[in-house]
């Protein structure tokens, strides 16, 4: 489980070190930095796929992504990291030394690509020299040997992550385990529910323990929960939101389609007839009752387009998911946060409430009086 998330110089997150627990609820006013925190987690996940540099380039490169505060304090780069019970990881992105050149001469067209200046993994929750497992400084990467020594440094291109290039079961087994841990993280953002949404179309059905990010395989995911997951929890979640209703999956020649049977209606409602809020709730039901829980599940504003009456059933679903996976919820809805807090008290579980606020262009954690209130964290030096 991730215990600490650290971000420096990313958008409004000038210097942010946040403690995490099993269930984390991030709230705050508009513009306080909630979306930036969510995107920072996405960038860390992209690092596990070898795509963080590309993701930053899509944002306009470092000039667009770094903190835009006082130019006298303009940061040299962007740093992301996390630490947990078993592993820690940090990466430092910086401006390229030069724009490079094309083979035929002339400046490179990839000027938006930042370079990875420093990258480290370590054992345990705090970076220490003795705990380093893999260490990258510029183009040089060294990995820890079984006897505590170091393998000879190897070269790496400035835009590649050692997570993608050196995660070898023989050379760096710990790095491989860390990469697979990061790749297991799951993110759900504003899933479409409009008339042309993928979730409304009939799709070929195969066993689907993990709902796709666009929700296209919703029917198959719900049927998978019914057959191999917690079908009682599925029925209870639907009944809590729509009393007397049940979800059934119609099989039309191998193509699956949702049918919602509601009390008082003589026929079930098909996917094209469901309201945006109803469809969205069913999407969250499939995501949160997954038979294959990830190491980390991150939800960004799941309350969007939901009727207020659905927030309490959604809160119960989130609390259920947190029994099997670490959850980070980013929400604008205080009613949802309150419903989760109430449900947690009822079930005698803990919620890590993180309220963000912005002061002088910098995102801060509300209620934090001094640096002593932050988790212990060290960045690797360039």
From TrEMBL:
Single GO MF annotation: ATP hydrolysis activity
Gene Ontology biological process terms from the UniProt entry: DNA synthesis involved in DNA repair; double-strand break repair; SOS response
Protein name from the UniProt record: ATP-binding protein
Classification via SUPFAM superfamilies: P-loop containing nucleoside triphosphate hydrolases
Highest taxon, organism lineage: Bacteria
InterPro entries listed in its UniProt record: ATPase_AAA_core, P-loop_NTPase, RecF-like
Residues in ATPase AAA-type core domain copies: 23-332
Alphabetical list of Pfam families matching this protein: AAA_21
């Amino acid at each position: 489980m991730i215990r600490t998330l650290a971000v420096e110089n990313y958008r409004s997150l000038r210097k942010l070190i946040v403690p995490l627990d099993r269930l984390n609820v991030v709230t705050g006013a508009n513009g306080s930095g909630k979306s930036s925190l969510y995107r920072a987690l996405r960038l860390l996940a992209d690092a596990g796929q070898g795509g963080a540099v590309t993701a930053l380039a899509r944002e306009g490169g470092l000039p667009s992504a770094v903190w835009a505060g006082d130019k006298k304090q303009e940061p040299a780069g962007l740093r992301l990291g996390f630490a947990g019970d078993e592993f820690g990881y940090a990466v430092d992105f910086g401006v390229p030394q030069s724009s490079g050149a094309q083979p035929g001469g002339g400046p490179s067209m990839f000027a938006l690509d930042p370079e990875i200046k420093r990258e480290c993994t370590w054992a345990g929750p705090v970076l220490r020299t003795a705990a380093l497992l893999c260490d990258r400084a510029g183009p040089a990467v060294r990995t820890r040997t079984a006897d505590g020594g170091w393998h000879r440094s190897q070269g790496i291109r400035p835009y590649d992550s050692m997570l993608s290039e050196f995660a070898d079961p023989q050379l760096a087994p710990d790095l491989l385990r860390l990469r697979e841990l990061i790749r297991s993280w799951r993110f759900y953002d504003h899933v479409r529910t409009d008339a042309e949404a993928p979730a409304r179309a009939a799709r070929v059905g195969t066993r689907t323990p993990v709902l796709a990010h666009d929700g296209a395989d919703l029917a198959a995911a719900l049927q998978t929960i019914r057959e191999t997951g917690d079908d009682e929890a599925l029925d209870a979640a639907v009944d809590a939101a729509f009393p007397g209703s049940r979800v059934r999956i119609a099989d039309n020649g191998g193509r699956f389609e949702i049918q919602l049977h509601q009390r008082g209606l003589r026929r079930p409602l098909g996917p094209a007839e469901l309201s945006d809020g109803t469809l969205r709730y069913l999407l969250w039901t499939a995501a949160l009752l997954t038979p294959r829980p990830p190491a980390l599940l991150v939800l960004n504003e799941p309350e969007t387009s939901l009727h207020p009456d659905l927030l309490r059933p959604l809160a119960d679903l989130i609390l259920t998911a947190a029994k099997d996976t670490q959850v980070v919820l980013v929400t604008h809805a205080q009613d949802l946060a309150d419903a989760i807090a109430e449900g947690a008290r009822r079930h005698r579980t803990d919620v890590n409430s993180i309220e963000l606020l912005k002061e002088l262009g910098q995102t801060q954690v509300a209620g934090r009086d001094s640096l002593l209130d932050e988790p212990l964290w060290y960045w690797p030096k360039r």
